[in-house]
Amino acid sequence: MEPVIFTEDKTSNFEEVVNKAMEKPIKHYEKELASIRTGRASSSLVEDLKIECYGNQVMRLKELASIATPEARLITIQPWDNAVVANIEKAILASDLGLTPASDGKMIRLQLPEMTAHRREDLIKILNKRTEEAKIAIRNVRKEYHNQIRNAEKNHGISEDFAIRLTELLQKITDEYIKQIEELNQAKAEEIKFDKMTFEFLLKKRR
User: Fold this and answer.
1) Fewer Cβ neighbours under 10 Å: the N or C end of the chain?
2) Are 46 and 77 in contact (CB under 8 A)?
3) In what order do the strands lie in the sheet with 65-71?
4) Distant-in-sequence contacts of 153-156, Cβ < 8 A, 24+ apart
């Protein structure tokens, strides 16, 4: 993690570095949630799928095709080059999506099955696990920068009062990121339980 250059009574640099560090696990969490397949079609399920093509190249699906969701449980993939259709199909089958592509040689269709109550329960468990991992990642960032504050105070780089001020600021930033995780978790849970598009709307709003 990036070390902080402490300057007495100035918090802007500290705040910038901590925000930058905490943004990384949030972005990772967003990608993890987007990859959890629900009963509703979403381009985010497949757009970052890695495709081996053109010899030794590895490209993301969104770099090779246009992706659409014309129906609630249908994803269509239109490659710009028909030569990579088989490569895309192979990548989909090798992924953990659990979907079988249907292709006419030009367009690939992915039909999402109706989700059973049992499957929804399983996905909620996966969601909760990913959520707890994200919170732990944020807390680990907090721990790292709290240690930096303590070391700076111990080495007389900053005063005790300023160390307390920075510690309170660090906790405030941490609470904000934990809140973001909880909002994303709630939105994804609604999507899993009720096929609502809450998570996708929230993700677009954040971007």
Assistant:
1) C
2) yes
3) 65-71, 74-79, 108-111, 102-103
4) none
For 185, residues 6+ apart whose C-beta sits below 8 A from its C-beta are 33, 127, 128, 131
Strand partners, 50: 60
Q: What is the pLDDT of residues 41-59, one digit of tens each?
A: 888 889 999 999 998 899 9
HSE, CB side, 13 Å, CA atoms: give it for residue 84: 25
Structural Rg of the chain based on CA atoms:
22
Paired residues of 67 in beta bridges: 77
Task: Give 118's Cβ-side CA count (13 Å radius).
Answer: 0
Domains of the chain: 12-35+116-206 (1.10.132.20), 43-111 (3.30.1360.40)
Helix (H, G, I), strand (E, B) or coil at 28: helix
**Who contacts 16 (Cβ-Cβ below 8 Å, separation ≥6)?**
none
pLDDT band (50, 70, 90) for residue 197 = low
